[in-house]
Design brief:
The protein is of the alpha/beta class. The chain is built from 18 helices and 21 strands. The longest helix is centred in the N-terminal third of the chain and has 32 residues.
Length: about 550
């Protein structure tokens, strides 16, 4: 039964891959005959810009086109040149002077465009020139992403596209994001994601103007980041003997019998962070505590509540919520702060996520020692102890100029003063926190769990459960009515979660992410007033050709 399911999953996958390849080839051929974006109707920019006024005519990019930019703008301009070169087969020349040129693409740094903020841009395309204006480098980068989408689809090809005229429709765009946190979460703790796949994933995010990638680095099933002071975390904690196949149920569980693991060295992390940063994406590391701690405890049993009993526990091989929890003894606090100190060395992010979710308190309840600790600290109960524990991390991070982020479970027993809350169990936690003056990121299971099925379960590869079709993602509004009008600015934004219990490889990660992440990108970027699902779908149909050209294994539209 399990084997059959697996076989049919694999078969479904290869069908998908073959279908994608065939469609991709056809589209690239078509793209060379008539350039899709030469018609403003099909320019199909995702996420939809705040305003775009198209007019007659085109600008045509040729090898003679000069790119004019200097200083900070030149750094971004080079990214345009780099991204176009493979498909166009030539590198545009960058010049710093703005001598009158016949045909040019000019980057103009401004500090006088308050209406577009730090991430916005203005893009003016006429038959003679393309001018991108921005206050900050990020704005140029997003202007470039829009410009790429205005070009024929073949601009996304990784190899030279022959016979294409690189036309850009004349248009005047003013654009800036609705939210500053436009995020996705990946979960290499459950199934390791090789560095190369993460970099690909970052490229796809950048195209969609997503700017925050949370990496869930530690969990019961694996510890995925090198910590020099505690080498066993990756020597032991990064590997599990085998993995549950299929869902949890009452009958005998089945396992694949294959060792699984991997981790990122600190050198890898620096490379990933640099790569993301060049694409204006902030990497938010997540180190789970006090629950989801089994891989750490299997590496260092004294971190758990019952060290003697736990000395033989192994990295977990199944899914679900595990009761192994860090013991909040002084040396555990020191250990975790040491870990965070190394994490801060390699992740420059202002935001450091400490998890905090699903911390089962059975061990704390059963331990005389922990109960004595609760009394000694004059805390009310285990929830109070969890709150105390999180506050130790909050003040430690604050002392180092960082901000703690946690899942809404950290509301238990009282929120740490500077904490940012990620609302996942619905919106209630986010609403309460925002109204109490805390920053929040909306990530409710109802609209942002991309590990849920995106179609009928019997027609989809095995997923964790749930049902989250594209339209439901698109319809999400990260600002619930129950947030007081003067507290709305505490909603930093929105994030989609790709929990990976049932996402075994990078191709499947892309399948679960796209097109839903494209819908989320529009939720995070475009004004609420311009939301229109049919219009989005029309643009998305064209946009999928770009995904094909980029060889992203997205799920086909229904
Ligand atoms: C809940 S969301 C979890 C994750 C699981 C996910 C599966 C959250 C903070 N915790 O550990 O992977 O459900 O959907």
């Amino acid at each position: 039964m399990q084997a059959n399911k697996k076989l049919s999953q694999t078969a479904a996958h290869s069908r998908l891959t073959i279908a994608h390849t065939v469609v991709a080839v056809i589209c690239l051929c078509l793209g060379t005959c008539f350039s899709a974006a030469s018609n403003p109707e099909t320019a199909s920019v995702i996420p939809r810009p705040v305003s775009a006024e198209y007019s007659e005519g085109f600008f045509t990019i040729t090898p003679a086109t000069r790119v004019i930019a200097k200083d900070k703008a030149a750094t971004e301009a080079l990214k345009l040149i780099d991204t176009l070169a493979p498909a166009m087969g030539f590198r545009l020349e960058l010049v710093t002077c703005s001598e009158p040129q016949d045909r040019f693409i000019k980057f103009e740094l401004s500090d006088k465009l308050p209406q577009i903020g730090d991430e916005g841009y203005m893009l003016d395309v006429t038959a003679k020139s393309i001018i991108i204006r921005a206050n900050q480098p990020a704005g140029f980068f997003y202007g470039i992403q829009t410009l790429r989408q205005l070009l024929p689809v073949s601009a996304f090809s990784k190899t030279k596209a022959k016979g294409v005229t690189w036309k850009v429709p004349c248009v005047n765009i003013t654009d800036h994001p609705r939210f500053k946190w436009r995020g996705l979460l990946v979960d290499p703790a459950r199934h390791f994601i090789p560095k190369s796949a993460l970099l690909r994933f970052i490229d796809a995010m950048a195209l969609h103007k997503l700017n925050s990638l949370q990496i869930h680095l530690t969990d019961d099933q694996g510890w995925r980041v090198e910590i020099k002071k505690y080498p066993k975390l990756t020597e032991v904690g990064a590997w599990r003997d085998e993995t549950l196949t299929g869902h949890l149920h009452n009958g005998p569980l089945r396992f694949d019998g294959r060792r699984h693991g991997g981790f990122y060295t600190q050198k890898d992390i620096r490379e990933i962070v640099r790569y993301a940063s060049a694409r204006h994406i902030n990497i938010v590391p997540e180190i789970e505590m006090p629950g989801h701690a089994r891989a750490a405890i299997s590496s260092y049993p004294h971190l758990g509540v019952f060290p003697a009993k736990q000395k033989d526990i192994k990295v977990w091989t199944r899914w679900g919520v595990c009761e192994h929890i860090f013991a909040p003894r002084p040396h555990t606090i020191v250990f975790l702060q040491d870990v965070l100190a190394e994490v801060m060395q390699v992740f420059p992010s202002e935001y450091i996520h400490i998890g905090g979710d699903e911390a089962v308190k059975n061990h704390w309840k059963a331990s005389e020692e922990i109960q004595a600790l609760i009394r000694a600290k004059h805390l009310k109960d285990e929830a109070g102890l969890q709150s105390w524990f999180i506050k130790q991390m909050d003040s430690f991070l604050a002392k180092h100029g960082r901000r703690l982020v946690g899942w809404d479970d950290i509301l238990q027993g009282g929120l740490a003063p500077g904490a940012v809350v990620m609302s996942w169990r619905g919106e209630a936690g986010g609403i309460a926190s925002a109204n109490a003056g805390h920053d929040v990121v909306m990530a409710p299971t109802s609209h942002t769990y991309f590990d849920y099925y995106q179609g009928l379960a019997n027609k989809e590869p095995l997923a964790i459960g749930g049902y989250l079709p594209l339209e439901r993602v698109y319809q999400y509004d990260p600002v619930p009515n129950a947030i007081d009008p003067d507290k709305v600015s505490h909603v930093l934004g929105v994030q989609g979660q790709l929990w990976s219990e049932y996402i075994p490889n990078p191709q499947h990660l892309e399948y679960m992410a796209y097109p839903r992440a494209a819908a989320l990108a529009e939720v995070g970027w475009s004004p609420k007033s311009s939301k229109d699902y049919d219009d989005f779908l029309n643009r998305l149909r064209h946009h999928t050709k770009r995904l094909q050209a980029m060889e992203i294994h997205y799920r086909s539209l229904d």
